[in-house]
User: Which sequence fits this backbone?
């Protein structure tokens, strides 16, 4: 079970809702993934043009926990404004703090992220900051009282997977709050790897929505989460330099 | 009366004087939206009483797909 603040979730997969080829495929992918936490962005409504269907309005909201993000914010103040707008919907009190500090790499601004997290905690939000994989920053965020830390595996949407497993492992080892690996996931092996490192969950979007078959990939990610987690709990063998035979070395049938 | 609605200058005829009337003018009364007037969030229970004035900056916000 994944426990964030006072909520528990059966699924350790958090799924983004952006960039699916169609609503139909998206609905099926979400269902198959068995994710219980879905991320959304907060935007101006396009009220002057033809009505487009809205994915969130088609969801059975009793089955999902919404995790709106503050994407688009470049400062702590902007992030707080977006978070307050999201909460005013009456549908959620969790917020993914996402403050981009660099347009080319979409890496988060650590200073503004720390500031926004503090402001949002004061306002009673359940705060899940998307951060870089900095070990000390993760500790500082935990000391503030955030409810989970979400270090990136690699740049958003890059699909490069986990490029610094050592830092992620350090963060996981030191944290007593959930560590959710967020961003940069490319394939199921990245998810299994994150879970084997001991992550409490993985948040991904493009890896599923951009796959050739998003529904099938959603299922693959679900299985990878489960396989990785079971592997972590089971405790893997030590690596050795040389071969160690699995078959008995006595009673050989030889001439 | 003209207001700035989601970044656009719009003129409304008589009958669009409150947030509630604005939402129904755009057929949004049953949609999941959040309304901000001059950077202050208007809670649902105040839609009926919150009146709009000339020059108000109004944002109608909703949730879209995102990661």
Assistant:
């Amino acid at each position: 079970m994944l426990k964030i603040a006072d909520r528990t979730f059966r699924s350790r997969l958090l799924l983004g809702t952006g960039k699916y080829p169609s609503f139909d495929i998206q609905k099926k992918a979400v269902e198959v993934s068995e994710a219980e936490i879905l991320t959304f962005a907060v935007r101006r409504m396009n009220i002057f043009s033809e009505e487009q269907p809205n994915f969130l309005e088609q969801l059975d909201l009793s089955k999902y926990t919404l995790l709106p993000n503050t994407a688009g914010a470049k400062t702590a103040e902007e992030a707080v404004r977006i978070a307050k707008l999201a909460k005013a919907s009456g549908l959620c009190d969790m917020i993914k703090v996402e403050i981009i500090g660099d347009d080319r790499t979409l890496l988060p601004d650590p200073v503004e992220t720390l500031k926004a997290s503090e402001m949002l905690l004061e306002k009673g939000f359940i705060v899940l900051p998307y951060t870089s994989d900095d070990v000390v920053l993760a500790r500082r965020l935990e000391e503030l009282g955030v409810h989970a830390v979400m270090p990136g595996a690699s740049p958003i949407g890059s699909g490069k997977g986990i490029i610094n497993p050592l830092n992620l492992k350090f963060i996981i080892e030191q944290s007593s709050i959930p560590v959710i690996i967020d961003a940069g996931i490319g394939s199921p092996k990245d998810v299994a790897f994150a879970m084997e490192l001991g992550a409490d969950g993985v948040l991904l979007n493009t890896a599923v929505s951009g796959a050739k078959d998003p529904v099938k990939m959603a299922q693959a990610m679900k299985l990878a989460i489960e396989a990785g987690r079971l592997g972590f709990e089971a405790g893997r063998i030590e690596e050795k330099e040389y071969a160690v035979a699995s078959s008995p070395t006595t009673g050989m049938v030889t001439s | 009366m003209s207001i700035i609605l989601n970044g656009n200058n719009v003129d409304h005829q008589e009958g669009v004087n409150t947030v509630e009337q604005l939402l129904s003018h755009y057929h949004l009364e049953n949609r999941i939206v959040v309304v901000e007037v001059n950077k202050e969030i208007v809670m649902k229970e105040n839609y009926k009483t919150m009146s709009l004035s000339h020059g108000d900056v109004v944002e109608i916000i909703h949730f879209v797909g995102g990661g």
About this structure: The interface with chain A takes residues 5-8, 26, 28, 31-34, 36, 39, 41, 43-44, 59-67 of chain B (CB under 8 Å).
